[in-house]
UniProtKB/TrEMBL annotation:
Stored InterPro entries: FAD-bd (IPR002938), FAD/NAD-bd_sf (IPR036188), PheA/TfdB_FAD_monoxygenase (IPR050631)
Protein name: FAD-binding domain-containing protein
Molecular function per GO: FAD binding; oxidoreductase activity
Pfam families attached to this UniProt entry: FAD_binding_3 (PF01494)
Top-level division of the source organism's lineage: Eukaryota
Record's keyword terms, sorted: FAD, Flavoprotein, NAD, Oxidoreductase
Domain (FAD-binding) ranges: 6-351
Length: 433
């Protein structure tokens, strides 16, 4: 095995979090290598809509407009988010007129499409390199560098970097190799994420809606301008994966609008992925020269879209912290600040909001939904709804404020306080699944 290839930062995982981290670093002239075990970016049906704090970072990375052009039609800019019963009666909604004055347009774009956009932009940066079919096998953290042993189609090789960013998802190899636990719990239900074609709009469905029901709670939302929709629903915990897959049509018949019984020829499934819902976090997002971001650092219920929105904020924060240390003269302790603040954001915002959103859908009796605290606030006034929308900004934190004053640069900003804690009941406008 030849001597290690050297770079300043090695990023592991070519999902949106790893790609965005790489893009920010490369734009600052940092020598960065991104490795991914798969032959290309993952096509699994995951996130599709990004919260306001994430949109700020996508704008700063100059990819938001391209993402909107793929995922959105003109009518989608008047974003409407509804909560309905299983027989499709309205419980409550955010309306276009609730939008905060001066806020950025939402971004709606399938996670796979966003990854392709980010990959293309990274490819234009001279200081960045993406290596697919490179699977991380070992990590050695030394006093001067972190050395990664990587399995490739041509055999094992080593990569040496000043820092390593683990952005390799919930089953993170990075996290396991540095012996960090993944503390928390797993919800009993399955979650089944489907990309499906069905005329929901013709049956009166808005762009996005949650169904509130103890057995059939779910999200139904349009993914793109081609008529592809995301249907993400829960399944009973005692079922095997095979039983979950065999029961898809029964679930569709329970939650889809339109004539009953539902004809199997009325819809077309393009992708389907059952998985478990976790509320977990590593005890620290830094260990030596290794740092974690996104699902490698934490996991949450995707109902409400806190997962990738938090991951995108992690990516921006980690990149800005590394740029501060490598280019702006900041002390290495800035990386400890990144780890502490982003973990606190998970605990104070992501975990609480995502779990609360899931409980609202699962545990609220539909016939008594109007009496629940969340829906009483949602239906009380436009001012109350705007306050709930402002809470969605609290996931962000601008680590450039810790750069020396003469080194700081201006970027897309918002007047919302990014570090305020959200007021209960927690709410967010994003749809992560």
């Amino acid at each position: 095995m030849a001597g290690p290839t050297e770079c300043e930062v090695l990023v592991v995982g070519a999902g949106p979090v790893g790609l965005l981290t790489t893009l920010f670093l490369a734009k600052a002239g940092v020598d960065v290598v991104l490795i991914e075990g798969l032959p290309d970016v993952d096509e699994s049906p995951r996130a599709m809509t990004y919260g306001p704090a994430a949109v700020i970072e996508l704008e700063r990375a100059e990819v938001a407009a391209e993402a909107r052009s793929i995922g959105m039609e003109e009518s989608d800019y008047n974003f409407r988010l509804r909560w309905i019963t299983v027989d499709h009666k309205l419980i409550g909604e955010f309306q276009p007129e609730d939008r905060i004055h001066g806020s950025l347009d939402t971004v709606i774009c399938g996670q796979y499409e966003l990854s392709k956009i980010l990959k293309s932009n990274v490819g234009k940066c001279r200081s960045a390199k993406i290596l697919f079919n490179h699977k991380l096998a070992e990590i050695e953290d030394t006093a001067r560098a972190v050395i990664a042993t990587v399995e490739t189609p041509d055999g094992k090789k080593q990569l040496s970097a000043k820092y390593l960013a683990g952005c390799d998802g919930g089953r993170s190899t990075v996290r396991k190799l540095v012996n960090l636990s993944y503390d928390g719990f797993t919800l009993p239900q399955w979650l089944v994420a489907c990309n499906v074609r069905y005329p929901f709009k013709g049956h009166g469905f808005a762009r996005s809606q949650f169904i509130v029901h103890p057995e059939h709670f779910c999200l139904i939302a349009k993914i793109d301008r081609t008529g592809l929709w995301r249907v993400s629903y829960n399944e009973k915990e005692h079922l095997t994966r095979e039983e979950v897959l065999a029961n898809v049509h029964h679930k569709f018949e329970a939650i889809f609008p339109g004539p009953k019984p539902l004809n199997k020829d009325a819809y077309k499934i393009e992708m389907l992925s059952p998985y478990r819902i976790h509320q977990r976090s590593a005890p620290s997002y830094r260990k030596g020269r290794v740092l974690l971001a996104g699902d490698a650092a934490h996991a949450c219920s995707p109902f409400g879209g806190m997962g990738l929105t938090t991951g995108i904020c992690d990516a921006a924060g980690l990149a800005d912290s590394l740029i501060g240390v490598l280019r702006k003269g900041c002390d290495d302790s800035l990386l400890d600040k990144y780890a502490d603040i982003r973990r606190q954001k998970y605990q104070d915002v992501t975990h609480k909001v995502s779990y609360n959103n899931t409980c609202v859908l699962r545990d609220t009796p539909p016939e008594k939904a109007s009496e629940a605290e969340f829906f009483k606030m949602l239906n009380s006034s436009p001012e109350a709804r705007r306050k709930m929308l402002e809470n969605a900004y609290t996931l962000g934190h601008d680590f450039r404020q810790y750069w020396p004053a003469e080194q700081a640069t201006n970027g897309t900003s918002t007047a919302i306080n990014l570090d305020a804690k959200p007021d209960p009941p927690f709410a967010t406008t994003t749809l992560g699944i």
